[in-house]
Amino acid sequence: MKTFQNSIFLIFTLLCLHPLLFSQGTRHGIFVDGSYSPGSATSHIDSIFDDRLDRIEREMARIDPGSQRQRVDTRQGLLDALAGIECRCGDEINIVMAGHGDTETFSFTKEGRRISARELKEALGRAAVECCCKINVVIFACHSGSFVDRLLEEAHVQSVYTSSAGNEVTHSNIFVRDPARVVDEGDWLKSFMEGLAESRPGTGMADAIERAAREAAEDVPVDYREGETPQSWRRGEQRFLAHVERNEGRSRTRQVEVQFYDPPSMRGKIMKLNLGEHAPANRLRACQWISGTALFSSPDEDLELRSDIALEDNPPRIPIRAHVHDRDEVHVLNPAWQYCHTVDLEEDLPRDPPFVRCTWLEAQADILDPDESIRLVNPRQVNQTVRVRAHVEGKTGHSIRISLRSLLDREVNGQMVNYPHWLQRFGYPRGFEVELPPDQRRILENLQPCDNIWFDLTLPYERNASPTASDIWKIHRGPNPRLVRRRRSQ
Amino acid sequence: MKTSSFFTILLLSCLFIPTGFSQNDLLTREDATRIILQEIIVPATSNHTITAFLVKTLLQPGDIIAPFYGDLNHEMQEPAWFAWINDDPLALFAHPTRYVFIGARTGDVEIVEHAWWPKLNGESLFMSEAEMMDLELIIYSDVHLKKSK
Fold first, then answer.
1. Set of chain A residues whose Cβ sits within 8 Å of the Cβ of B144
2. Are residues A68 and A109 in the same domain?
3. Interface contact B147-A177, CB threshold 8 A
4. Pairing mode of beta strands A92-99, A101-102
5. Peptide bond before residue A353 is cis, with ω within 30 degrees of 0
6. Strand partners of residue A332
7. pLDDT of residue A278
8. A 92-111 residues with CB below 8 A of B?
9. Which of A121, A394, B12, B109 sits at 20 to 30 Å (Cα–Cα) from B38?
10. Are residues A191 and A47 part of one domain?
11. Are residues A253 and A187 part of one domain?
């Protein structure tokens, strides 16, 4: 009987404590539409941005059905939304912003108003009424990286992900192809949206956002890669996998310099890790892969190790795409964090058929040393299709003779390269003939010497195969200046 | 009577002769296009993507061109053609663009760099859907294309 009474009492107590024991807190999602086009009309590009934000909002609802979500499209709307939140212990605010930006400002273009990074930081600070409220911010805009340091001044901001650095622009491959047709070939926000779709329901939003931002960073087209470097920072204690770059453990500071693979927000970053008492520094050697838990504070603070360190036997293995530089060397195109690194090929690596200079390889790769050494596994050469801009020199039969021009070369699958010099080094002279497939030949009637065109050029890796062209578009040019006569008398 | 006729003729002369003369002497839109394509953009030598817009009608004295964000106003002192060269058309803003003013009487060209799209008398220019799809307004683009089939 006594046992029964105790059980009843225990159940009653648990029921009373239920909200405290099992509450996940309130997760708020704020989706900020800064818009693309000025004026009250909604343009196609506005609609595309809207659709991306809609999808991100739906993904958040799928991943976290209990979350409370709201959409804002004005400066005051954002401030009001934040003012209406009392973020307490266990609560979370996730903000996704998309629009135009400038250094430390985000634009609400339809109303011609802006919010500064400082104003946003202060509004976030007011929304966080208890110290363990957590805030994650995602910004898709030019110069969005200039928000990172400012927002991290607010202690509740746990992570910030941006589409470019503070001094860089963000591109969106949306353009008018016909007078009535807008083409969407993607951008950082679209990749972020697709990355979010890969997270399962129940995944913490902070984790889902981090992974999606990592994927978006990997998807930046090669064309833009050197001028568009997404930024990320997530703080708190996190598991890491890192490569020891340098061991300064014998110094008083007991530090090692590491390059991170995980967490994803840190991939490729090199930072100093204070070992404290957790790991004997003299046990660590440069070039080892290590894992553990560290405290990530802010981008300008060293990291603090919070666990023992494990030595990893195997380096990360990742898919890569590379460009054959010569018989024994390739240059990495993807992933982005390995872009342009040189890989020396091992002598016993199978090469059947022999690698042809300037073709592309796809392979698995062991990252022995992120900056120095990658080992390829089962590489194979692949045809490459790039979108090139060219000048029409003439036409014969089913072929056009072109000369390659600089500018936008884009691979069909969305990767973009900008290597006219690479195409020339591939063995083609500046001008060469490209045969058109039957379904493309009628465009020949409209092409004249001196026209500028875009087309997808497929270069086969087999030596004897001919390059082919497809999807040809003539570059728009206004009134022909050769026909213009200046009427003004002197 | 004679005096008033004389003044009437004089007044009419003042009103119409300069205007009629200047209309014949002004650069046409085609002239402005030629200047932009042959002297400023020069497509054959450009090393980056560009979209350029040119207003369809001359700006008049008193018209004001200004960037969407920023304090600098350009008030027209004489009739001028205004073109906007977007030097990174697929980038969101802010990024390099050029405002080109071509004096319609003198042919003088002034180029000013601004990071945002222009406004004409307070209204945004060249960023509406209709404008971005208007192949008359766009005098050059290697991003926004005309299908050639």
1. 175-177, 476
2. yes
3. yes
4. unpaired
5. yes
6. A322
7. 78
8. 99-103, 107, 109
9. A394
10. yes
11. no
A172 DSSP β-pair partners: A187
Specify whether A360 is located in the same domain as A422: no
Question: Are residues A407 and A427 part of one domain?
Answer: yes
pTM metric for this prediction: 0.83
Find the Cα–Cα–Cα–Cα dihedral A420, A421, A426, A432, rounded to 10°.
Answer: 60
**Beta-carbon count within 10 A of B40 CB:** 18
A276 vs B: CB within 8 A: no
Find the length of chain A.
490
Q: What percentage of chain B has pLDDT greater than the value 90?
A: 59
In a domain, A11, yes or no: no
**Looking at this predicted complex, what is its ipTM?**
0.83
Residue the block writes with tokens 């979108």: A387
For residues A59 and A204, membership in a common domain is answered with yes
Residue A402 tokens read as 């072109």
**Count of structural domains within chain A:** 4
For residue A108, the enclosing domain spans 20-231
CA B66-B70-B71 angle, 5° bins: 75
Question: CB distance from B87 to chain A under 8 Å?
Answer: no
In terms of domains, do A63 and A80 share one? Answer: yes
Coil/strand/helix, residue A423: helix
Cβ distance B146 to A474 less than 8 Å, yes or no, reads yes
Per-residue pLDDT at B134: 84
Q: pLDDT tens across A254-279, in order?
A: 889 999 999 999 999 999 999 888 77
Q: Are residues A112 and A47 in the same domain?
A: yes
Choose the final residue of a domain: A382, A403, A434: A382
Identify the CATH number of the domain in which residue A427 sits: 2.40.50.320
| Least CB–CB distance from B133: residue in A142, A180, A443 | A180
Q: What's the angle, vertex CA A194, arms to CA A192 and CA A195, rounded to 5?
A: 60
The set of residues, in sequence order, having a beta carbon less than 8 Å from that of A27 and lying 6+ positions away, is A64, A66, A67, A68, A91, A92, A94, A205
Please, which residues bridge with residue A105 across strands?
A102, A116
